[in-house]
Write a structure and sequence with these properties.
This is Sulfatase-like hydrolase/transferase. By secondary structure, the protein is an alpha/beta fold. 38% of the residues lie in helices and 13% in strands. Helix 10 runs antiparallel to helix 11 (215-237).
Length: 343
Amino acid sequence: MTTTARRRLAVAASLALVATLSSPSAASAPEQSPPAARFAAFDRQVLAISVDGLDVRALRRTGPDGAPNLHRLLRQGASTRNARSQVEMTVTLPNHTSMLTGRRIDAAEGGHGVTWNRDRSRTTVQEAAGGDVASIFTRVNSGGGRTALFATESKFSLFQRSWPLSVNRSTIVQDGDRAVTDAARRDLLRHDRAFTFLHLGAPDEAGHAHGWLSPAYLRAVRKADRLIGTLLRTIKSHPRRLGDVVIVLTSDHGGGAGTTDHRDETCLCNYRVPFLIWGPGVTRGDLYALNPTYADPGRDRILFDGAQPIRNGDLANLSASLLGLGPVPGSLWGADQSLTWTR
């Protein structure tokens, strides 16, 4: 979409109410930045996708024929199959909170403090951390942009409770990968979001039920690939509206082959995740080659000292950088915004 068209939409959108506080807990949750007086025009839209439980070995098992869209993103974008999850835990909700805040997990060390992995209906990230916590949602909002969250597990309601004025739309359908993908696709066409976060949970669900890399798990990965394909086709079919979309895709953890658990944070199978950037202006190639200040970890589990690998927690500040915004306040991962997508 052209900048002029975006500005027209921004003016129109500024007259509309974009966030509805539907519950007392949401209304009372701390908010890190006030709603912007008007919506700004951005040169890009960021679509962040987390494929829950996506083990990089599944990409080899399915191959380009079984997962053509994931392989296309890896091939055409700036990508690595050797990024890292969070150091402290390889569990879903803590890692997704790190993706959205850019923080480590341990609250005593400045982390977000979300160490549980279930739906706590009245808890916020701020309560877990013991103080204010900003996010990519608040960063975009303070910069004048709108955001949306689409997820397949009820525990992701934590984020709308924590930042009720900055998550302008939150749609959660339990185990509803197709439903949330369709909702995100329609939302991209109808609304001018600066940042959209989409969570696809079927691979993780299949891994817990049948084992990672099992036939059922690989079928779930192929299903996620097909859903991502619908988004790519929508982007291609609407170049004026969506021609500036940049996709950032990663995962929260992998899983041991034949096991139904991923809690051992010392196992390569759990802490190794993919990370990719795809879209206009993105240089095709290996992310570590494009970013020599980041250290390719090989098979190692890298702690906090020394040169760091690319982590799923880099998602927040990379997204802010793609939008021309400064880093998320209080963040650790990618706070210098040196992670680049171009030469």
